[in-house]
Every structure is written in C-alpha cells, then in structure tokens.
Amino acid sequence: MKKKITYKRNPLLLGVSLLIVATSYMTCRTPYNPGADNYSKVGPAVELPEGADPEGPDWKGIDLAPKAPVLPLSPSDQAKKFVLQPGYAMEPILTEPQIEQPGAISFDGNGRMFVLELRSYMLDADATDELEPTSRISRWEDKNNDGVYETGTVFVDSLVFARFVLPYGKDAILTMESNTDDVYKYTDTDGDGKADKKELFTTRFGRSGNVEHQQSFLYWGMDNWLYSTYNAFRVRYDGSTRESTGTNGAAWGVTQDNDGKIWFQGGASGVPTYFQFPIHYGRFNVEDQLAEGFRVPWGSPVLISDMQGGMDQIRMPDGSLNSTTGGAGNDVFRGTRLPEELVGQYFYGEVVARIVRQINPVVTEGLTQVHNVFQDQKQEFIRSTDPLFRPVDMTTAPDGTMYITDMYHGIIQQGQWTPKGSYLRTKIEQYQLDKAVNMGRIWRLTYKGMDRDKTQPRMLDETSAELVKHLDHPNGWWRDMAQQLIILNGDKSVIPTLEQMARTDKNLLARFHAMWTLEGLGALKPELVRELMKESNPRLQIQAIRASESLYKNGDHSFENDYKAFAKNTNTDIALQAIMTLNTLDVPDAASTIKTVIAANKAKGIQLIGEQILNPPTTGGNANAMATFNASEQEVMKRGAVIYNELCSECHGDNGTGTLISPGVLMAPSFAGNPRVQGNHEYITKVLLKGLSGSIEGKDYAGGVMVPMGENSDEWVASVLSYVRNNFGNSGSFVTTEDVAEMRTKTASQQAFYDYNELISSIPKALTINSNWNVTASHAQPTLVGGKAAASGAFSFEGWTTGVKQIPGMWFQIEMPVETTISGLEFDSPGARTQGTTPPTTLETYPREFIIQVSMDGNTWTQVAQGKGSSRKTWIPFKPVKAKYVKITQTATAENESPWRMQAMKLYQVGSISLASN
C-alpha cells in the first residue's frame, strides 16, 4: 500500500488553468545548468496511492499532470527575473562554478569575502549524504577592484555541514560543524589562503539533530559578546566566559543595528523572532509586535506551488506562498551607497516565498513593532519569478551596498520535510527540483546614481592607531571591524585616543564604538562612563548604562544609585534601560524601585516590561509547577525548558498553544491540555524519535510534519518530553532516559515518519474504571469509611492513602469482571504535609519499593514487574498479559513517617484510541 500524500485541499484550485499558465511559463526559460542532460523534457505523471479516488475529497483539484522541469538560468538571465523597487538593480559578483550552495558570507579586515558553502545540502529529495564532509569555507578577493570577486582559495575544506563563518583577526576564522559541541579557530599561518592551524576556541556550544535545528550565525556584537541562533547564552569575544540570555527562537540569522541591539531571525515562522531589547536582559513577551498582515508575503508568481504546507498555504492561481514559513538570513542595513532611507531598516529573506523583505521598526512608548514597508502595495522589497531564487543571507558590505546570498537551489526544505508521499515531494518530482543543485550566486544590490565605494579595506595591515580612525566611518561594517581588530590586537596605546573620541567626537556612532572598544580592552573607566551618562543624548546615555554593567559585574557597585535615578527618568527608553539593568544585575532593592517606576510612569513599555520583571510569566501556565517536583525533577524541568524555548517554541508557541500564522491556522499542534501529550508517554516519545506526518484527528497544520529528533541523546529527549508533559496545563509522568533507550530499541525498524492513525493504534490505552470493578486495599484512609470506597479513590483526584507509614506487605488490588489484556499502570503520589511540626514538612508518598502481580482467579499470582518509586509520578510498564486481578504490593519501609498515597491512577492496555484533536 502506498503512503497517502499529505496536503491541504483548496477547492478554488483550477488545475487546468494552472497547467496552461505553468506550461507557457516554463517553456520560455533558458536552459543553463551544465548538468541539464539530467533533466527529462517532461516529468512523469504523479501516481496516486493504491485505491485512491481522483475525484475524492483528498485528491480532487490537485494538478498532477506531467510538467516541464524548472531549469536553471544563467546569472544574467536570472537577473531579468527580479522584480525590484524603482531605481534598484542586482548584479552578480560571485557565482557557480566558483562557489556551490552558499549559505552565508562575511568579510575580514581586508574586505576578503568568506563564503560558507553547504555543498551537501539537499542534493536529492531524501537529503542523501547530507552529513558527508564535503562542505567548505572559501575566501574570495576582488584584486583588480572591478566589483567582481575573481580570486579565491578553499580556506577550510572537508567540513560536515558547517554552521557559520566569523572572521576573527588576521587570516583566521571561527566555525564549527554539525552534530558537534566545539567551535574552532582556523588560521592561515603561511599566507597561502588556506588554514593550516586548528585551535579549540570554546566548547559546550552545539547540539545534534536536524541541520535546520542547530545553532548558526556566530555574530560579534557591539558589546563584545558573541551571539548565535537557538543558544540561550552568549560567549565573550575571547571564548573565556559565557552568560545565560533569554531564548531567541532564531534559526538562521543574527545581526545588529547601529545601537548594538541584536536582531534574531526565525525559520519556520518566517518572521523575526526577537528584537525588542538586547537579549541578555531576557526575553519579554510583547503582543502585537508584528504589524497587522505582517505574516502575509507578496511574492511574484512562481506557478509551481511547491510549498510544504500544501494547498492551504498557496495563493492561487499564481502558486505563490500566502503565509510566511521559511525565514533565512538578516541584516540591518548600515551602509552608505544605497538610499539613506534604507539605513536602520531590517532586511531578511523568505526563501519559500522567494522574496527579500524590508522592515520598518516603529518604536512607541518603548516597544517596537515591525512593518513590511510594502504591505499596503501588496509587494516586497525584492521579488523574483525564478523558482530557484533562494535568498538565505543579507549583508552590509565594505563597499557600502548590500549583498544578497542566493543558494539558487531547487529544494529549500530539508529532507525530513520532503518524505515520499508528501505534497511537497509530489511537486519536487513534478518539476524535477531535485536536479537543481550545486549552484549559488552572490548579488550586489545597487541604486541608480550611487556607485559602490571602491576604497578597498586594508585593516589587517594597519596599526591600532590607524584602525581607531575607522570608528568614525559612516559604514557600520567598517566601524564593527575596526573595533574587533583593535580589541584582538590588545594594543592599549590607543586608550587616550579612544577616550577622547568617546567624549567629543561629532559622530554619535563613533562615540558608541569608542566606548565599547575601551570596554573590550578592559580599559573602560567609571569616570568616563559617568560623564557619558550625563550627556543630553538619550541614545548615548543608554549606551553608557549598558557599558557600565561590565564594571558593575567586576565589583564597582557604585552605579546602583545611578541606575535607580535613571529608572525614574521621564524618557521612556532610558527608564526602560535602567529597570532592565537593575533586574539583570540583581541590584539590591531593584524590585521596590521598579514598583515605584510602574506607579509613576504609565508608558506601555514601562508597564509591560516592569510587570514581567516583577511577575515573570509562568512557564506554560503552571504557576506552582516547579514547587511540586523534587530536586532531580526540577533539574530535568530546567533542562527541558531550555530545549523547548530554544528549539520548539517557534512552532508550538511560547506558551505551548501553537503559533498562529493566520486565522484558524496553527504552525503545529497545541500542547496545552493535550491528551496525547500527557497520556501514555509512548506516543510523544515515538513522535520525537521518529517523526509524524499527516493529519492529526482530521486536522492539518501549516508545518505539515513533525521531524524526528532522535539524533539527540536519551537525556535530551527525556528532558524536553518531561517538560512538555508537565507544563501548559499538562500533568504526566516523567520520561526517563531508560524509557527513551527502550523506545529507541522498540522503534529501530521504523524508517519512515509515523502516520498518526497507525501510531495511535499502537499506543497503550487507558482503561476506564467501571462501577463493577472491585478495588480493595490493605489500608484505608482513616477519614473515609470502608476500604473499598477509599481504595477506588485512587482512580480519581480524591485519592487513596494508607494513612500510616509505609511498611512491607501493604497492598492495593483491582478486580475486573472480565479477562483483560493489560500492559502497564501509572499513578500520582502527591506529597503529604505533616501535622504539628514547625515549620510543616512535606513527606514523599510514592511507594519505596513494589512488585506488580496478576492473577486470573485471585489465588494464583504471577509477578510481572518490580521497581522502586522515586518521584510523585510513577509509570510501571510490563509485557502485555491477560488478567482479571492486578495487585501492587509495597515491599520496603519508608525512611520516615511517609504514607503510601495514590491518585489519578490509570491501567493501560494496548489498542486503538480516539482522542479529541488539540
């Protein structure tokens, strides 16, 4: 039986008209790829699954006719397919065959361009050989200064899907590979353009899993800390120190604005993820930070409708994307050779929509809302009718323009989103997109009448004194690089010059960089900071407050009163900065100061951020969740929270309710109160290990599939599952590393994603207690009358308890009226408060040790399990066995007066189950 193709049906789809339009469009394309012989003139017709009805609701209206392939265009022909705003042009400066599948670029101090070449990415629809060591980082120069990068070397070769490239001083870069934990520094010591020295820079930096779920874009911020996507920490520029930050929710893109605020770009959401304030102050929840309509992209007609979410995510009849889903790369433009109105605007690529979007940040009462500049016109800053245009990075270049990194690729979703039988796989095969590989272009965006800056940087050959002058440069790239190189040089002879620049330079941005360069050199003095705090410019005052945090951390607590005074400033932005600093540094009496500020300053930003500082949002809505867990469980929850917020929240939502991308459409299912999530752990464990595709209880989600994450360790999987099962209003047993290891073994033969209906039929089903069950126990809670009534309370939140200290021989028994096949049981054991002690203490009420026995007649018993309790949630699985009687016997003595207590008990059998969709 062939697997059913997963998609979302759109009754407005006119298949015949689409075929006519698409065919006429494709036939006018110019073949270019040297490998064009690999393409068929017309692709094969898509076969329906066996037994599928072409006129049925699942298939009617879907165009499955043979198609001409999407053939690559030459760079000159591709340039004609761009739809640009008036006055702009795109010119290629580096293309295949010199480079292949570029993912990002960056420049060293001499303006040489490093290209991250992800040569193993999606070479076919199954992501074959994706983790082979074939990726590289190449370095390119424009030696004749004609604007084209013609001279290149392979700086580092044979990498396993490298995550980023950050130039780091003279002839050196930082990078790391996928599925590793270490960042390395690679240096070219002999000047041949190839790194010959490899040194460990920092560790505990990475993760395993899908290549789209790993950290990327290492970025040196103006505050001299290194930031990356996913990771909820930052690392000092020399790799020596790290600090926890808020979760950034980003996938592929980190940049900063002229004030050093880091901007993070989401992946699956297709929108920026965090940009309100510097992330080291934590992540604050701000509603409506995306302007109305922001999630609607306005790409040009690409006609082929190759969107992973299926027809509900496609605007017909032009086949373009109708809701953002694939963000990549970002840049706050800080150059000089494009119109001035672009400076400070945020740009990013939406690779599925084939657009580059221009965002205008609007700050009101301290809070930022982002707007698509061309939303009202139903346009984007850059669009293309070429389906292979994949803008994965944007960069302010040394020449003052913006460079666009275009992977120019057929398939942009990783292989776990393109399984056989899926809607997207259908479109890939229809248009032979899997054959458009091994290409890539870097474009320069120019504007009519504004030539690029032809001054070639030579900063790697300059003295620190010469570098200081570049801190005054109008192009942000020059300022950033000069600051970095001065700090890495460690030359303190320039300190007086930097201090003078910080005090008196006419360029406000030069003053910022001079101060932060002093901070990076360890030469920032308190008296200089206080001078700058007294300046009249609020932006400079805010920079001074931020820079002073380094001095405070090093022991100079004399700034406490300054922070408290600034918190009462009438300027909302200054006051916000001060209360965030007070909170982050844990300044004494910070809370009382913030309360005073909230009472006096009614600006929306003050009220919102102040309230979240004083009353941090509870994780998932369980206000007292952590208090109910023991110390080891709390550690598991903390690990799980980090994983969830770094990786899962973009699709499943900060509060577990799912990310809403359009009215009624969620990116992924809600976890809140989800019976599948908090039921038997086999369901959610299998999903995380092996993935899930298709509808869930008849409901589709924009994300289409849940990709497997089994590449991660058992501890990793157990932590995030336990967190999800005990947050968002859920209450489930903790998943242990042993549970995960056992499930890995059980599912080893499962190669494809699970289909929901197949999966749910294999999950143990909780039996419903009936009135004809006879539930008895050796002990009964004294306040209840009758052992039978008291014991049956174990199946509800009424609960059952021995009422006295646990000793061997205590038992709890269930008699069912008919023979039943059972495979496990679970129950809660809430803590019991002692009476008559000061202060009151909580006794752990789980059974210390136990055996599980079954019987057909109540006389002859067979042991099926034994174990030790360790937490308030006890899950006891065993091989399926037929029984009428089930007995739990307590076999140890409690170390204190702890009774044995059980509630919310569930007895499981293997079988199909139907749960309400959530």
UniProtKB/TrEMBL annotation:
Keywords on record: Heme, Iron, Metal-binding, Signal
A GO molecular function held by the record: electron transfer activity
UniProt entry tagged with the keyword S-adenosyl-L-methionine: no
Protein name (record): Mono/diheme cytochrome c family protein
Segments forming domain Cytochrome c: 635-728
Source organism, top-level taxon: Bacteria
Alphabetical list of PANTHER family matching this protein: LARGE, MULTIFUNCTIONAL SECRETED PROTEIN, LARGE, MULTIFUNCTIONAL SECRETED PROTEIN-RELATED
